[in-house]
From TrEMBL, chain B:
Family label: Belongs to the sodium:solute symporter (SSF) (TC 2.A.21) family.
Species name: Fluctibacter halophilus
Keyword Nuclease appears in the UniProt entry: no
Subcellular location(s) of the protein: Membrane
Annotated protein name in UniProt: Urea transporter
UniProt signal peptide: none
Keywords per UniProt: Membrane, Transmembrane, Transmembrane helix, Transport
Amino acid sequence: MNPRIIYMLLVLLLIALSGNSVSATQVREGYISLNVNNKNSMYERLTLLPKQHNAVITYTYPLHQQDLAFVSGLPDGEYQPVLQAKDGSTQSLPPFTVKHYPLWQAGGLFILGLAVFVALLVTLFNYQRSED
Amino acid sequence: MQAVQIDSTSALLILCAFGVAWLAWGWYLGRKNKTLDDFALAGRNVGFALATATAMATWITSNTTLVAPQLTLQFGVWGMLGYSMAALGLLLFAPLAERIRKLMPHGFTSGDFILARYGRAAWAVFIIISLCYALGWLVSLSMAGGLLLSALSDLSYLTGMTAILLICVGYTLMGGLRAVIATDFVQSIVIIIGVVVIAVVCINTVSFETLHTELSARQPELLNLLFPAAIMFFFNNVFFGIGEIFHSNVWWSRAFAFAPGIGRRSYFTAGLLWLPIPIVTGFVALAAVTLGVVPPSPDMVGPMVAAKLLGDIGAVFVFIVVFSALASSMDSLLAATSDLLTQDVFRKLLRPDSDDMSLLKASKVIIVLLGLATWLISLPKLATLGALLNFTGAFVASTIWPIVYGIFDRRLTGKWAALAMTLGTVSGLCGYFLVGFYVAAIVSCSVSLLVCRVGLARATTLFDWQQLQEAPRVLK
Amino acid sequence: MYLSELALTLIVVLALGITVCVPLYLLLQLCLDLKGKRLW
């Protein structure tokens, strides 16, 4: 593979990765570990309420005796986690925002990976053939 | 944590039964070991069945039983498929394994090759990378042992971690690579039967229809084929896996140990057989929320779902499967890393004039010291398993190109190989801290390729393959 | 673009099918090696 193409892909990657200043409660992968502090099994459910206007979908998860709860697979949006106790009382946790990477950044990295991988395959194949 | 399933007496009983059985077998297999070749390389004549099983079993580690479900929970379908792509490491190593044995018929370690091919500077960088990786993997395995035990039984993290280390150090010490390879065969059968049973029960309990509906409602991104972070992760995992296998002495020592003509076929077969396993182990994580399992940390999802699916007996079952998976990697890693330390640090740096017997003795002392070091580092539970392992992604991916060019191309010199590994690692670590663990390997591998290409373009001398025939030589 | 139920089913069932054959294949090869006296 031509080194110049790899160089260009690298520059593209650097541009893609720049400007990703992420605040403390911003989640870029759609997963987060929440401090539910449920060692005494007081709460039985964790609900994520999207803070967006006219949102109809809420995400609920069962809770057991545990300090942390790991939730994943969330789409973009602002979320307000709420703990629900057996007696019906609730407690709010600090809100967080999910903002996935733009698709072109992820795609750029994927293409870089594919290019380097194909280069590896071709290299190994050629050496192998010339050895035989 | 959810309800505890195995009481401490039963858990200790299982541990003791395992310990005694494997130690006895290690002793039985090791009683005929006379020379260093016997102990470190199983006599350099391992056949196809054992060769394939050991390559596969070693690659089924905490990676496949704990981290594959973890990554499926984090990255969904892409995480699962991306993990199974680690099989490419085994598949692509197949041609290398064959040529390594041909180029260096007397070689012991990957360090021997790097020193003879690239000289001291590259060798030093390579040894640092190798040891960081080996220790990182060892620690993550012993931590996984501790986590598993504390999740499935009344026993503490410390007890589990200590037990798995003691058992593995014990039988590796007694039987050498022969014991490692033979236990790997049994362990691979146990692991596969176990993961198949868990997967079948999972499909029976939660149908694909329910699974899909629940995921769409509660974790929609896990099914998204355009999930950005997961797309970034995909090739990262490919290069991580390739880097792990290409550089690590675990795989090189096997290349030296397999009988002539076996290497290529067995590594290729092992890769193909390994490919579907992370999908089988990983997909159960998709059923977690449906089953009411919300793990405290992502690395616990696999055992928790399995224990939930199979109930009390299941906990014992999961315990045995994951314990086997961890042991099958840990024994290999102990053996291979002790070879590396014996040959590359003890022999090359400290005692150049040692004979076979003193090297054999040194290699046994080093196994014990390695176990002790791992135990000390594992005492505080530092990071989640995946993050700890992926930290080393930046290191190992930088070695892929220097190794490929080193084995096949006479033009690349030691200076450029050292530079490629150093710059690759540094840039990979930058990626790790600036973006996330899922880009470290890809950045590292790309930068390393770039440096190697520049090195090849500027080459003025050609390496003489004959120099490898006499290696390993001793540093003067 | 989301993965359909059918695709998910196919991927998992295929992987499971291959995995089931792995121990059988390994044991068969072990028998062949034992018979041919080339275990190690």
